[in-house]
Every structure is written in C-alpha cells, then in structure tokens.
Amino acid sequence: MATPRPLPTTSLQLPDPLPLDSGQVLDGVTMAYETYGTLASDRRNAILVPHALTGDQHLASEHPITGKPGWWVRMVGPGKPIDTDRFFVICANVIGSCMGSSGPAALDSDGRPWAMRFPVITIRDMVRAQVALLDVLGIERLHAVVGGSMGGMQTLSLAANFPDRADRVLAIATTARHSAQNIAFHEVGRQAIMADPNWQAGDYYGTGAAPDKGLSVARMAAHITYLSEAGLTGKFGRRFQDRPDGTAGGRSFGFDADFQVESYLRHQGLAFTDRFDANSYLYITRAMDYFDLAEEHGGRLADAFAGTRARFCVVSFDTDWLYPTSESRSLVQALNAAAAPVSFVELSAPYGHDSFLLDVPALDRVVKGFLE
Amino acid sequence: MATPRPLPTTSLQLPDPLPLDSGQVLDGVTMAYETYGTLASDRRNAILVPHALTGDQHLASEHPITGKPGWWVRMVGPGKPIDTDRFFVICANVIGSCMGSSGPAALDSDGRPWAMRFPVITIRDMVRAQVALLDVLGIERLHAVVGGSMGGMQTLSLAANFPDRADRVLAIATTARHSAQNIAFHEVGRQAIMADPNWQAGDYYGTGAAPDKGLSVARMAAHITYLSEAGLTGKFGRRFQDRPDGTAGGRSFGFDADFQVESYLRHQGLAFTDRFDANSYLYITRAMDYFDLAEEHGGRLADAFAGTRARFCVVSFDTDWLYPTSESRSLVQALNAAAAPVSFVELSAPYGHDSFLLDVPALDRVVKGFLE
Q1: Hey, how many other C-beta atoms are within 10 angstroms of the C-beta on B17?
Q2: Is A167 near chain B, with CB under 8 Å?
Q3: What is the largest CA-CA distance in chain A?
Q4: Residues 273-292, chain B: which have Cβ within 8 Å of A?
Q5: B110 and B164 share a domain?
Q6: Is the predicted pLDDT of residue B6 greater than 60, yes or no?
Q7: What is the ipTM of this complex?
Q8: Which residues 317-346 on chain A approach chain B with CB closer than 8 angstroms?
Q9: Which reaction does it catalyse (chains A, B) (predicted)?
C-alpha cells in the first residue's frame, strides 16, 4: 500500500490532545470508526469491539478495499451473538493503523505523512484513544467490551485502566503479556519490512513503491502462527497444486509453488499488501510486544484489576499456540486473586489462533450468553 | 556470503556421474568431507554422520570461517559417545551446500558459478552422493549411520534406499516426511531471500553484494522453530537489553532491539550470513520439503524399510515442535510393521528441536549404548 486512499468511513477528530505512554502527546487525533445498531436513549447498550493487529473498523460491513464482508460478520449483526437489534456496536480503527485513524500513513499537521515521525504507541494508548472517542459519542459506560487477540489485549487494558467504563469484559484468544516467542515472530516481520529497500526508512509514501515484498514476508511468517499445525495438515497436507494446464501437479524440481500450502501462503502475503501499510505493521507489532499488563501495574497482574467492578469472561482455544490456554489461565488466576467475577472456558476448535474469527458455534454461544 | 572462499577441507571428485531424482545427471561431483579416527583394517568401524540444513562437515573440528568448535564436538571425539578411538567417523558436506561440495556456489564446468542452474536435488540425492563417497573410500558397510534433523532424514533415506550399507541406523529429532507447517516456514525463508534485490535471480556471486538481508530474515524465522517456547522464555523472557552505556534498558519507544530476544535473533541472522550461501539455503530447504519417504516407496512408510536388516534407534525430544514426537512414533510404527528391530525413546530436554545439538546427557547415553 504505497499511498493511502481516501476511504468511505466515519471519522472524527478528538477534541483533546492524547497523552501517550512514551511521554509524547498526540494532537488532533483522528478516529475512524463504524457503528452498528442504535444507541439506546439511556446510552447503556453500547458494546466496544477493539480489533486485532491487521483488523479494522469494518467489523460487520464490507471492507472498502477488498470488498469482502466484515471480519466478524458471523458474530455481529441482527439476531447474532452480538445482536445489533439490541446493542449499539462500535469498532474504531486503532491509532497507528492505516484505515483512517491517525497513524504513520496519515498526514501530520505539516501536510506530509507522519511515516516514522509518528510516535511509538502502546496498547494502552490505543485504548485511551477509544475511550476519548466514547467520550465524544457520549457513552459513559459500556454494556461490554469484547475483543480477540490484540482486541483482547485492548479489552483487558480498558478493564484495568478505565475500570468504570465497562460492565462486562470478554477477552478471547489473548494474553496479558507478549511472550519471548511472540516478540521473536514480530521481530522477524519487522526485519523483513525494514530489509526491503523500498522501505526507505519509512519514507515511501507517494514514491509509487512500497515495501510490499517485505510486508508480504512478514505476513506469511505471522500467518503460520495464526493456524494450528493440525489445521494446516488438514487443509493442505503435502498436496501438490494442479499445474496451470489443469493436470495434476507434483515436484517441479524448481522454486515455483509446488505445494498448495506454498501457494496459499504466497497469496496471503500478497493480498495483505493491498490493504495494509508496512509502517503500521511496524508500529502495531511494537505496541503488542510492549504489552505487559502486570508490569504496567507494579509487576503483579492481579493488581491491574484491583479497581474493577466488571464481570469477566476469558476464552481460549485448545489449538491456539500463539496465545495458548496457559496464558488465559494465568489471567484467570489474577482475576480470581483480584476477587473479580470471572468465567473461563477453553474451547476445542481445529483452527488455531484464528478460531476466534471462524466457524466455532461454541464461541457464539459463549458470547451470546455472556452479553445477556 | 557473496563469494565462496577456498576452504581448508578434504575433498575429492566422484568418479561417476550422479543420477538425480529430477532425472538430471550431475557430472564431476565434488564431495568435501572430514574424517575423525582411524579406519580399521577390515573397514568395518566406519560411522557416517550426515549433517543438518545449515551444518557442514566440520563435525568435530574447528569451523574454518567462524573459528568455532565443530557442531557436534560434544558427541564425537576420543572417549565420547561416538568414540573416535574406536570408530572412523565421516561427515561430508551435502551436495547443494556451500562448504566445498558441489552446489550453487561452486563452479560449473564452464568456470562460472552454478547459481540457479544447479539442479534441484532431494534428500535421496544427497545420500546417493555420500554412498558414492563411501565407495571411493572403500567402505562397503557402515557400523552405523547417525543423524539429527535433516541428518536424520538422510539417515532414514540411506536405510531405505541402500539397505545393505549400514548395520545400525540412529535417527534423532527427525521425521519421515515434511509437514505442511514445516514447508510453510521454509517457504517464508525462501521468499525472504528471493525478495532481496541482491538475490538477482541467484546471480550474485562476484558482485560483492549477496542477499544477506533476506538470508538473515530466513534464518531468524527458522531459528524460532529450533527453540521451544519455554526455552525462549527461560533464556530471555521479556527482559530488556542493557543500553550501550551500561544502564538498565527498557522501552525505547523506537525500533531498535529493546528486548534481549530481539537482539539475539538479529545476531543469529547476521552471523549466519558470514558462513552460509543464500542459494544453498533455497536448494536445501527445497530438498527437505520434497522429503516424503513413504511417497518414495509406494505410499506406505513400512514398505520403505522392507529390505532392511539394520537395527534402528529413534530419538525424539518432548519440546521439539518442529519434528514432534508424534512424527517419530509414526516412523517407529512403520519400522515395527516392517519387522525391523527398533528402539525408541522420547527424551525430556528444554531446548526444543536444537536439543540434539546441546547438553542433553541422556542423549549421550542413548547414542553410546546403541553404537556398542
């Protein structure tokens, strides 16, 4: 994505400067967001759904670049587990991202893209911006905050740092801190991007050439971590691709994609570059790596939730090796230690980390039940 | 590694052309190898140790580029589990690699580097070349063949395709076929290399610029798969690096390596480019991805071992997620079905796949006992 395009989305400028964990202050923050359903007159039916690393505000509506349905359209809509006939659902593009909110691809006050002049942000900074958006929208208290993966980090961060803002907190396939292995995979992605000569220290906007090759490699590496080994085997195994002429494939004794899994990964990498900005990938992975909710609160995770009065629900998936169930258990123990009401469920699903986005009817039931 | 240097190693040219699985024939194959110990007069005390993806023939002697000790010096030497006071140990650089044997960095008969004109090879081709080397050395029957990781694949391939050449077969931390996830990680590495503009379709020799950035990213991604999540956490956790001035580190709110694990991975990637050729990385990963011993033998793994009279020992590590114990179990079941004598042990070690190279005394005992 060499040059960000104007996109059809709702956005507004936050009235106040946004203080950041780095000590910097971000002025004139733009928040791009979508809403679904109708805000009740008492303003008590709002649900905030923070998105994941490469997600965006198009939760339940067509993506303006890819034309694909919203990323959680199976979960959010009329009569669905997050029922837009009952709830007013808000999804905002996180700061640092590239779908309309302030980030490296957006223009600074001098009219030039921020690029690497954009301040390094944290998960808490993303949440601060969303809480400021809620203030503008006049929503004092959420019925619930619901998020998976990095959305789950934001969900937990909101509960910890703004304990009066949500009645229910639903954290799915997530963690209270990024592990060494998580950081390592992100660092591979960042190095792939920064190794691309088109990256040009981040100043590639308007050059007509973006570091798409590096971004594509970053996406490929990350994508493997989103799937389970068994899921990959079930979906692709060692099956060869058919040849272009339709005949059965096999070893080409070359470096084309012989295996279906190679072709799939290459496609995932390339398609990603159409809709995502490489600098945003750097900034958001950095924010995730910095995330350590215990460290933010004196080193004890339970203390992060000392002030909460919310009800919690924590969901993990048995095949998720990116944020395995053990991470969710630690979180639940901390919530127990903080005497917060919490329910916990490990769901069985074959898709690995991506299970939270896919067809797992048991998750639908958990979400629906928790929001009652 | 932009230009291969002449290296101090033993080498010879195979007398006969080498037929390859691709149907091509490789003439004038050079095999670079090292030997340790003395060949007995009856020539029955030889042990072949095929090396892993990024290994080489410097099994138990100093590496000529890095100056580091041999990669298995803890296992091979006088009085060690592979005892060079008793055994004559041979380790040959695999074809396709870059430490003196024929490969893309070596010169073709026209005096130019092969580069991508080098034929795509398989694990079986690597083994054919090593068996041809044994013929030259006058070794008809090995006391044992012993290998870990890709060395284990060669070990199994030798047992399957040359059943009269080894009395004992010891396969460590390996698999009889590369999984979809294994292929996926390799494909990320290959794409990282080929995305590097210095790669120039493989014709970078003598240009003074090699695709070191791409190769470094490939190595970083692969390196994560060699370690266990718990091992990474134990070794690095979320610890920050000290700053250059010696003060305690922390979040820099930038993109330098703040975490120790980032710095470690970057170093692993960079150091690798000093000693390894990017094209060799492409060729050898391809050979590994193509490896499927069952498919080679009509689709049933047991049939691969129908003609064997060797004794087998299979070793896996409980924290190896690259080639997990389940892969070894499938192999052992096939050997049982082929009525081959086999012992199997899963060892507990914290280091993940790399356990076979590291300080695991239980492995020493297994190796020593099996070679008696």
Answers
A1: 13
A2: no
A3: 67
A4: 282, 286, 289-290, 292
A5: yes
A6: no
A7: 0.94
A8: 321
A9: L-homoserine + acetyl-CoA = O-acetyl-L-homoserine + CoA
